[in-house]
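Action item from last week, closing it out:
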Amino acid sequence: MNKEMKRSFRIFILKILAVVFVLCICYFLYAFVYRAKTELPTKAVVTNRGAAVYTLRGQKQMLSQKEDFSYFAFDGREKEKEYGTYVIPGLKNTRTLLTKKGATPAMCTSMTPQGLAVTEDYVLVSAYCSTQKHNSVIYVIDKENHNFIKEVILPGQPHVGGLAYDPEHKLLWYSSNINGIAQAVSIKMDTIEAYDYDDSHLPVDTFQIVSLYGIVRDSFMTFYEGCLYVGCFEKYNESVIARYGVDEEGKLINTMDEKLGMDFEMAVPLDYSTISEQVQGIAFYNDKLLISHSFGILPSRRVFYEQSDKRLYVNENSARTYRFPERLEQIVVEGDSLYVMFESCAYAYRASSVNIVDRVLKLNLSKMETYDEEESLFFLSE
């Protein structure tokens, strides 16, 4: 090969690389920028009930590549309806309100699931509009027959990163904020059950709205042993979980303490716990604290921690850690089942996710605790 041919070949290779680079940039802009800010047009007039991406068979086949995760989710659930899974509704079309125009009915095609709660009768999923045009919602799913019942429209556009159910007082809490101040908002379950979008075209009535002292953002929450636990997501730094007490009516206890620099009533934490970065959800199981870690397209982690009086739940203190598919959000414990939900199914993230999970899944916690890590392809540390 003479010099001229070598030169021509190098130019050809450079052109190929340039084209590949441009295509990669275009796909990045489409998958990570365009889809997050754009909604698909729709002629639908009701919230969709079906799965956004997979049939049940397709979802199981996709997750079969994650051998331990698939084992925890599906093994022994053949007799359960839909293998114990719940389709996340509304990911194609959701009835809601156009926020800037008040009580104007609208359809949203960019809802992103965030929070998860499980009650005696329902599985509840919260979602926000990624284009910031529409009111946030809560999807109500029948726990027994797995059917979508209705959407509940929330006031405004909270990120609703966390849901928490108080079984004693029959209250549902969700995370919100106003003017940069973290808030916890509660709704009576009776109010949720009576809510009818067709009757009012108005947001649901709330029971209590409380500003939270001592936490920058309420990114996730759970309710445990009479207290509301609220945590803050941090990308690269350690963060905290704050524990708040409730009164006999189930309301968060408010106070105004000038010594703490408070000029209006807020809920003050009973105590704090330190947690690692990138936390999306927490739950309690027997004597353990379970934490979900997730950020972007990186694999998610689900971590077991032994409960400690020191309240220090950081990576080096973990008892057991498993890798999960990317974009894991809130987790909920009920008995020996761990309900998990992912935001990879949202329109904004489908093109940038390798493993799309468009259902709420139930994992077997007893199997997770006794699983032989030497056989797991995704086990990280003991």
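Closing note: Residues 3-37 form the longest helix (35 residues).
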